[in-house]
Amino acid sequence: MNDRKLIRLILEDPDRGIAKAVHLYGGITKVICRNILRGFTPEDVEEAWSDSFVRLWQRADRFDEHRNASLRTFICMIARSTALDKRRKCMRVFGVDFPDDEIVDVSVDIENDFARMRNEQILHEVVAKMPEPDRTIFTMRFFYFFRVKDIAERTDLKPKQVEYVLHSRKKKLQEALQERGITNE
Amino acid sequence: MSKVYELFSELREEEMQSSISPVASITPDEEKKITEMALNQIHTKKYGSSTAKPASVKMRFSRRWVIVAASLVLVLGLGTIAYATDLFGFGKVQFDGTEVETASAEDSNQYLAMKDYNDWIVSLPAGESEKLIGEQIEHYKGYDGTSEYVISYRNPEKVAELANKYDLKVEKKYLYTDSAASMFSKAKMPDFLGSFADNIDPTGGLSDKNLYSYSDQGAIRIYAALADGSSVDISCVPNDVFRSFTALYFPLNSADIKSTDEKWNFQTGSGYDVRCSLVKSVLFAGEGEDEIAYDRITFAVAVGDSIVSGEIGSNDQKAFSKADLEKYLNEFDFAKLAD
User: What DSSP line would sit under B239-275, residue for residue?
Assistant: First the structure.
């Protein structure tokens, strides 16, 4: 079943469409929710995981806005934002955040829509120029939220080597944002 | 301050394709449960009640999921490799112009197979190696790093051929277990950690619950944090197990990193000769830039029918010295492996 057919099925017959979507993309969305909600209860993960498919149903008619992306990518982005929302909600209660290693040391303006788009564009330009396996490592860490240890295992690198790559690439991103991004300075 | 993950809110298609798809297996029960949870909400939003349309909730599972709970170690293309040997007894390779010592005995079939395998990879026509990596990544399905991970090679057929030629076993996977005692027991290997085990911090930041793992061919691996915040990665692999490429010393040379290294041979108090290296690296060194120092110490020792190798990486605050490694090495009870 191609992407467009599945979207149509979700819109016309959510019961069958969502069941099919879970069947096809349950694995990847599980990983994303589990990574982002590491340390939270299995129930929290399940809730975000199933909420991702509810949002897919709610947003299925917007899939055309993402013409250049596959349904798989579209679903991944939905699962990621759903899990992050869940995490933020819990943060307000428990006051925990991601570790500092995800911080870029530059004060960019992410509240302003134009600034956010510009800075995101710069990030994607920087990612596009990364050689492999750096791009994979960077994406696994900052989009999929894999642990350094897991990335090391999957790329046959030492954890310290993965850390080197992440440090180096964050530095490049920081430089690009300072040079061309919209910052709060 | 901003966070990378906040900027990385959208995934471009080319980034999806280039990344290793993190696919996890799900069980039929999980599939059913998540579908039901989602549909209950959808029915509530659509019909005002989660049970408004129960008859239409048809779980159509046309086929059973094949559960492949696994991850794999990708053997990525890592440059041009040539070979030499060392008087100390570990085979060497040339890695992108840098001589690298492997943690494999030069007179072992393990090293000879490693050499043949890498010779074969280097001899591949332009683009063929990258194609194999692509196939390997594509083959990478069913990842679930919670209980085990699968070892994958760029060309399993070639590995099987060499393993047969040199009479070696091929590891398929590593399984996590909850204690050092369990790991050694399942691998049927004597516990050689000695008092070094006391340094391991089971609640350390680098570690989750998967500190200890063992392979289906009797190797073990420990990846954990030490009490001082350092990280440790120790393996013990029998000589009759195929290894594609293992580096005792692996400097990272790039514009962003400056490394200095020192190598030496150390004899433990109980008489075991250990090959050691200390690599001190500075990241982002340059005028007006912050410097981040990383020290890594690596070692390898041939004991009995196995090679014990490891790496200890410093935390940001701790600098390592030769004496630090030698102190740790004296804590191991290598004699257990020689029995």
Answer: TTB--S--BS-----BTTEEEEEEEEEEE-TTS-EEE
- Model pLDDT for residues A59-115, shown as the tens digit of each residue: 887 776 555 667 888 888 888 888 888 877 766 555 545 554 554 555 555 455 666
Find chain B residues with C-beta within 8 A of A80's C-beta.
Answer: 9, 11
Instruction: Report the distance separating Cα B327 and Cα B310, nearest Å.
Output: 14
CB neighbour list of residue A177: distance below 8 Å, 6 or more residues apart: A104, A106, A108, A119, A122, A123, A183
Question: Predicted ipTM?
Answer: 0.72
DSSP string over B182-225:
HHHHHHT-----GGGGGGEETT-TT--S--EEEETTS-EEEEEE
φ and ψ of A14, to 5 deg: -55, -35
Task: Give residue B34's identity as a one-letter amino acid code.
Answer: I
Bridge partners (DSSP) of residue B176 are B213
User: Among residues 18-57 of chain A, which lie with CB inside 8 Å of chain B?
Assistant: 18-20, 22-23, 26-28, 30-32, 34-35, 46-47, 49-51, 53-54, 57
Tokens standing for A159?
Answer: 């954890």
